[in-house]
Amino acid sequence: MVADGSAAPPSARRPLRVAIIGAGPAGIFAADALTRQDDVPVSIDLIDRLPTPFGLVRHGIAPDHPKMRAIRETLHRSLDQPLVRFVGNVDIGVDLSLEELREHVDAVIYTYGAALDRRLGIPGEELPGSLAATDVVAWYTGHPDADRERVEAALALARSVVVIGVGNVALDVARVLAREPSELESTDMPQHVLDVLAAAPVEQVTILGRRGPAQAAFTTQELRELDEMTAATVLVDPVDLELDPASEERAAADRVVGRNLGVLRGWAGHVLEAGRTPLRLRFFRRPVRLVGEGRVTGIEVERTAVDGDGRAVGTGELELLPADLVVRSVGYRGTPLPGLPVDESSGTVPHDGVGRVQRDGRSSAGEYVAGWIKRGPSGVVGTNKHDARETVDALLADAADGTLAVRGAVDDLVETLQARGAEPVLLEDWRAIDAAEVALGASRGRARTTMHEREALLAAVRAVVR
Ligand SMILES: Cc1cc2nc3c(=O)[nH]c(=O)nc-3n(C[C@H](O)[C@H](O)[C@H](O)COP(=O)(O)OP(=O)(O)OC[C@H]3O[C@@H](n4cnc5c(N)ncnc54)[C@H](O)[C@@H]3O)c2cc1C
After folding, report:
1. What is the pLDDT along the chain (466 residues), one digit of tens a residue?
2. Kindly report the CA angle at 459 between 453 and 460, in degrees rounded to 5?
3. What segment(s) does the record annotate as region Disordered (predicted)?
4. What is the CA(147)–ligand 1 centre distance, in A?
């Protein structure tokens, strides 16, 4: 509110201050959409709990997918916009409460992603040797919060690996674990990750699906890539490719499913040659429990069939598969941000359909949501662009009709954070980190090596004398 208690329209003198929480694709696309319009003067703080931008583009997309990871160059152009201020190393809910943040800005866009794993809910899931794909991905991409000890202890004993789930993340994990060390050398993986993977005793990798190949969520390109590895052979049991009529119909109607089946059928005749790592795709198997004394040594599965609606139905037939490492890749969900409602079942923030946050069934003035925390963990990076645009359109419409307005003088967010001892990482600081990673890579003949320790990232910032 301005001095007389009323709200004022944004102007060049006092633009609308918008905080975006989460500098992943959705946050960056939202910032970009705000800078590409002339209707409402804005200034944007793009906040992330990590000292680095890009969210899952840095800590999700597989390092052996350099072309996909290169999307960060495009995202970087939006960070370079003068109206956008990157404010990294600030955890909303820890360094600053949501309530405190809202005192500094007129509007908040939540784009903090959905980084928690979903669980299987079966006995044995807590045993050492049982990991979530989120753990493994965080580790191999060098996320500062990765549980190195747990993942590396599991990998040291991993002869038989079972990956549960039939989406692209399961393929990423299986591929990274089955690759020859030399195939990963050109990636930006931290050096300790390369070393641990090279020493891991992996002899076989199995990907398990509860339902059939017609219900799998792989994209065809990612699936095909499994068979392009130097030392692994993909094996598929032809019996698993015999489909019920409803699945046949699905394969005929859905081009991706049809193409995936074509790829899988092409692999059904593969023969394993000596010295190669078998990478098996097994369908119609539902995990029942993880078996082991003190650590995982196997996984019991129940054979299934799919009903007319594509649901898995147990047959009662049990099978024990050897496994020293079980990685579940059965989805992501959002973490609750203290002070923000979350729909428990979907793990997303309730909104009006276009991104206005709902509290008690009504749109909450000045609160918006985009990306995975808005629509759940689905789609590719580009899906977040349209999604963020939709949310920003809602924000701009609210600014145009006066629902959202400048609320009065506010203190500078970064100065406030610094005054209370936080160490916000700004764009030029990120550039110092970026340069340090490139230099670290160059010292080993690589284009970049990801620095995985928060302290090392911050040390790179402090090392630059300004
Ligand atoms: C393993 C994996 C592999 C993938 N591979 C591909 C691929 O090959 N190709 C493709 O197109 N898509 C891929 N995706 C999907 C893609 O990464 C997502 O669509 C996209 O990253 C979602 O964007 P987002 O901004 O909503 O969330 P995120 O990318 O998760 O960004 C959220 C950001 O919010 C920050 N944050 C969280 N909590 C807070 C807080 N309290 N305060 C401040 N900041 C916070 C996080 O640090 C993070 O930077 C993959 C996803 C995963 C999980």
Report:
1. 444 445 788 888 889 999 999 999 999 999 999 999 999 999 999 999 999 999 999 999 999 999 999 999 999 999 999 999 999 999 999 999 999 999 999 999 999 999 889 999 999 999 999 999 999 999 999 999 999 999 999 999 999 999 999 999 999 999 999 999 999 999 999 999 999 999 999 999 999 999 999 999 999 999 999 999 999 999 999 999 999 999 999 999 999 999 999 999 999 999 999 999 999 999 999 999 999 999 999 999 999 999 988 899 999 999 999 999 999 999 888 888 999 999 988 899 999 999 999 999 999 999 999 999 999 998 899 999 999 999 999 999 999 999 998 887 788 999 999 999 999 999 999 999 999 999 999 999 999 999 999 999 999 999 986 6
2. 95
3. 338-360
4. 18
Which residue type occupies 222?
E
- 170 and 267 fall within a common domain: yes
The residue segments making up the domain with residue 369 are 16-115+334-425
Beta partners for residue 96, in sequence order: 92
Q: Cα–Cα distance between 456 and 99 in angstroms, integer?
A: 31
Please indicate, yes or no, if residue 430 is contained in any of the structural domains. no
Give the contacts of 371 (CB within 8 A, at least 6 positions apart): 22, 24, 25, 26, 27, 111, 113, 384, 387, 388
Q: How many CA atoms lie within 13 A of 282 on its CB side?
A: 21
Q: Is the CB of 68 under 6 A from ligand 1?
A: yes
Q: Are residues 318 and 338 in the same domain?
A: no
Residue ranges for the known binding site for NADP(+) are 210-211, 222, 379
Residue 446 lies in a domain: no
Please tell me whether residues 55 and 103 are part of one structural domain. yes
Domain presence at residue 32: yes
Q: From the annotation, which residues make up the binding site?
A: 26, 56, 92, 210-211, 222, 372, 379
Are 179 and 132 contained in the same domain?
yes
**Does the C-beta of 55 come closer than 6 Å to ligand 1?**
yes
DSSP 3-state helix, strand, coil percentages of the chain (rounded to 5)? 35, 20, 40
Is the CB of 94 within 6 Å of ligand 1? no
